[in-house]
Amino acid sequence: MENEPARWRSDYKRDGYLVVEDCLDKQTLAKLRQGIEKITADPDGLPPHLKRWLDFERDFIRRSPQYNDLSAPQVGNALHNIMELPLFDPVFAELILYRPLLHVLQSLFGTAEFHFHNYKCIIKAPRISSKFLWHRDLPYLEHSTPNLITAMLCLDTMTEQNGATVVLPGTHRIPHEQVKPGDRDIPEKDLPAGPRVTVTCRAGAAVLFHVNLIHGGGANRSDVPRRNVIGIWVGPDTYPVTAARYAYQGLMPLSTDVARQRQVAMTFPSLVARSSTG
Ligand SMILES: O=C(O)CCC(=O)C(=O)O
Questions:
Q1: Which of 22, 40, 58, 152 could be stapled to 207 by a disulfide with Cβ–Cβ 3.0 to 4.6 Å?
Q2: pLDDT for 39-85, tens place per residue?
Q3: CA 140–ligand 1 middle distance (angstroms)
Q4: Residue (of 80, 93, 117, 109) closest to 35 by Cα position
Q5: pTM to 2 decimals?
Q6: Which domains does the chain have, with CATH numbers?
Q7: For ligand 1, is residue 205 a contact (CB within 6 Å)?
């Protein structure tokens, strides 16, 4: 991964998003893929305490048939989304401490005092996935300020054919009070004028964007999967305004506060011991 904090900050400020190629090293990418493949191999067979976090494509189509030209029975047991990834496998909990991504986040937030919100995986299964509605993330996340960043870790190369994310650069520049609950699903006719950029990048890239950036994406009609592990990260003085809480939410992996460092060390004793002994 290249170390380009000035470029990261200027892309983020101007466009509301940036791409960091090779953010995941080969070993981490392989471990994350394995972790997701363990879940997708037999999702119906998972125990109820994990199955409750799965959103099957068939259920998504029943709720939102307008986003797929296929019907629920045609998509088998493909998954659309896996929430609460850290509960499925330690590899996803340990990802909270993944240094290269934390370094980019620190550059964008301009401080080490940011915290973890949650990790999920959006899957666009080969040949059958739905497309993604146009939306901003902030209305789903329901926080007291918009100082949050969505960080997608691409487990597969993103191409137009497999449903790469599409962004509307500059749309993050909107006053907080103008973001509406309806921005969870913005009809095509209400999209602001301006370019639409299909974010193509290699497997292992990180795509980070401001939670007010309008984005969406096409269906996957190619023969290869398109899976993004998506983390939400929260800057200083920014708090949830609903009852929803997630596993490991609030951990501050780079904080300089001794009590916060102690929390991280006690949460991940073996990892922190390993990194401090080199
Ligand atoms: O995976 C993607 O392309 C985008 C996912 C997304 O927009 C979301 O989960 O809110």
A1: 152
A2: 999 999 999 999 999 999 999 999 999 999 999 999 999 999 999 99
A3: 12
A4: 93
A5: 0.96
A6: 5-276 (2.60.120.620)
A7: no
